[in-house]
Amino acid sequence: QTADIDAAYLELQLKAISEGTVTITDEQMDSLASNYFVTRLENDPAHGPAAFIVRDSIIYDVPKGYQILFGDSSYITTQPYTVYPTTTPGIDFSDPGNIRLQTIYDQATGSNYRFELPFVCEQNGAEGIRVSGEVFTATNPLPSLQRIEAAGSYAGGTTRETNAELAARCMSGMVVKSL
Fold it and tell me: In 20-89, which ranges are continuous DSSP H helix?
């Protein structure tokens, strides 16, 4: 019976927290949530590949922090990259910083080359999620750049869970006996 009373008390605490009528520190809420084997969802910025469509078969140096934009969201590279034409001798393409320029023909722009780089959104939240084909704007365009587009769907895009959200999630998995 004591266990039932304790469970009911915890449920009332979670309900008050989720409704915002009780304030609690993050540490206290995390401790309370651990009773339900639930952990807080943390920031996970959206991230994914961007394809650069370019006109020239030249070496492209892309610095760490290279920025592209989509609406109010900005995306950056987290390391420097060097993009090489396929005929460049002596390049170790197993090095993640060395990227091979691909030969293509893009009907929309008449461009002949393409390469992909990974990007991370600088803002947290679902607004950073992109789907394949969405077009970015470069803040500092590379030579002969024709277009930058999402080369696949972006993952992540979550913000840090609030205490109220965490409490509600704890409650969604609870089944309490009636007294």
Answer: 26-34
